[in-house]
Amino acid sequence: MKQIALIGPTASGKSDLALKLAHEHNAYILSLDSLAIYQEIDISSAKPSADELSLVKHYGIDLIRPDEPFSVATFEKLYRELKARCLSEKKNLIIVGGSSFYLRTLLQGLSPIPEYSEATQHRVEELLTDLPSAHRLLLDADPLYMKAIETSDRYRIEKMLLLYVQTAMTPTEYFTKHPPEPIIEELRVFEIDVERDKLRKRIHERTLKMIESGLIDEVCDLEYRYTRSPNALKAIGIIEVFDYLDGRIGIEEMREQIITHTAQLAKRQQTFNRTQFPKRELFSAEEIYKKAKALFS
Questions:
Q1: Where do you find CATH 3.40.50.300 in the chain?
Q2: CATH pick for 3-110+182-296 out of 3.40.470.10, 3.40.190.10, 3.40.50.300, 3.10.270.10
Q3: Would you say 156 and 171 are in contact if contact means Cβ atoms under 8 Å apart?
């Protein structure tokens, strides 16, 4: 099995390149995307079309409902299972990192998490009835770790409480004692290098296509089914539609805000990739195609 990772800012053409390479070189695609993992969030996540999904088997897409939480551990489990399948079926693997944080974590690894007893789970449920107090309990015990977790972040507070109650160690103590081990040992990481003006144009065109394809209707349906409370419905492309539906902005301003916010996200992604993947190979999509083709041949 041969494997590569493709990263790059949103709208840089990662999905198209991955699809072409996978189709030509007997590969599966693993999507590491924090929005495409959700069912029903199709247009706003720029998810591959039904035809594209049928052309090459994709993993990491449509796994959970928008109101279900997930963590990087979800991708860890998925990668391990998919690697075993690729080895068994003599397939190659292309990892497409829309959310590069998850790729970085797979490369750096995760700390092992203990089994939680029924008593621990029951105690944590009791503590979570008062979320601010639960957060304060952890903050007093481990201010360094907990300062990065908001008092409203029930999911992460619950995870840290389970660890604290079960092991009697603060998160900092536990993770220091149980350092992570890499999940992916060796991986060539290619980043698509795209000119700023060209990227802005692609973002503009993609935004128009999303709106024409029914973005507003999709967001209305998501709100009807799940309300606005899930974190998944606070993503770019969704929050701007909510502002439009609330009458705070017109449709033209909604479109421009999506474009602007997406461009800002792309810039943050490029900065993250530059600082977190110093050994990445930065080339145009055309050059990456040639290099990957040679690697898979």
A1: 3-110+182-296
A2: 3.40.50.300
A3: no
- Burial profile 124-138: b = 16 or more Cβ within 10 angstroms, e = fewer: beebeeeeeebbebb
Two tokens at 194? 């795209």
d(CA 83, CA 91): 9
pLDDT in tens, the chain (297 residues): 999 999 999 999 999 999 999 999 999 999 999 899 999 999 999 999 989 999 999 999 999 999 998 888 889 999 999 999 999 999 999 999 878 999 999 999 888 889 999 999 999 999 999 999 999 999 999 999 999 898 988 888 999 999 999 999 999 999 999 998 899 988 999 999 999 999 999 999 999 999 999 999 999 999 999 999 998 999 999 999 999 999 999 999 999 999 999 999 999 999 999 999 999 999 999 999 999 999 998
pTM for the predicted model, two decimal places: 0.84
CATH architecture of the domain with residue range 118-177:
Orthogonal Bundle (1.10)
Instruction: Give residues with Cβ within 8 angstroms of 206, minimum separation 6.
Output: 11, 46, 262
| Nearest to 228, CA basis, from 219, 218, 216, 217 | 219
The amino acid sitting at 133 is: S
